[in-house]
Amino acid sequence: MAPDRSTTPAVTENGSRRWPVALAALAVTATLVIAAVLLRPEESAPTAAPQSPPSAPSLVVGDGRTVTLLSLGGSATDALLDRVAAGLGDATEQVERFWGTDWTREITVVATDSPAQFAGAAPGAPAEMAAVAVADSVDTDRRVASGQRIVLGPGAGRMSDAALRVVLTHELFHYAARADTAPDAPRWITEAVADYLARPAPDATTPPVPAPVALPADSDFESPEPGLSQAYDRAWLFARFVADRHGPAALRELYRRAAGRHMEAVDTVLRDVTGADPGQLLQRWRQWLAEPR
Ligand SMILES: [Zn+2]
């Protein structure tokens, strides 16, 4: 089943973002709130700041990664983060199976309850986004991304569990790959792989897409809706095609070489991992798309 694009991330997020001072102050209280929710779900959130320093939430996922959940919207976002806590383990394991385990050990998720909170936590991100993964700074030479966080928009609480799982996995892949992704990496590749990991495989219920006349390109992502959703769909289906025909390792190699810090030419990498030139590849992709599911 294809997820409703309105509940999946429409845009992502490269480059530097600044963590606002105001948010840092909010985050201290927010950590306390969600820690209380996680550890004592039957109790209401505290209304006054406790006297002792905050303790980290006791949530560990995947290969021993520590999760910090920041609830900026009180009970509304506490409930959303409970659902995030329940689904983040599976999302992490999905990312680790594909990408490996050599990525940051800390995962931070911020839930917002208003456009202003979302803008504060994810400056520059379009207000209508369900979620975005941002970082304060990225140093690909040292393989370090600072201030990384997944920020959930004020509408995220209305997502179904299935849609939330897609969004979390998609953003978590960006998060995991951030320190190894060139700031100017081809967007179609970063989105293709994130959606490959996050979305269910296409089946008989997946709406057909028009036979493509070209391989995916970043210019596809410059269109307003519905063109933007179609760009995501095309990139996703191309990633599916590569993984189906050549294996997930080939798709990972495409990402690491064509979107990684040494960014090789996409056509060269595609030829290496598929054995086909762009024209042949387009033909094979069209044939794959036309196969019954
Ligand atoms: Zn994305």
Count of beta strands: 7
Bound molecules: zinc ion
Physical arrangement of strands within the biggest beta sheet: 1-2-3-7-4
Estimated radius of gyration: 19 Å
Proportion in β-strands = 5-15%
Q: Number of helical segments? A: 9
**Helix/strand class:** alpha/beta
Helix fraction?
A: 40-55%
Question: What is the oligomer described by this structure?
Answer: single chain
* Tally of discrete structural domains: 2
What is the overall silhouette? globular
Provide mean pLDDT, rounded.
85
Can you write the helix and strand succession as a string? HEEHEHEEEEHHHHHH
Described by strand count, sense and barrel closure, the largest sheet is: 5 strands, mixed
C-alpha termini separation: 11 Å
In the predicted model, the low-confidence regions spanning at least 5 consecutive residues are 1-56
Can I get a quick summary?
It comes from [Mycobacterium] wendilense. This protein has helices spanning 21-39, 75-99, 115-121, 161-177, 187-198, 227-246, 248-258, 266-274, 278-290; strands at residues 60-61, 65-71, 106-111, 131-134, 137-139, 144-146, 149-152.
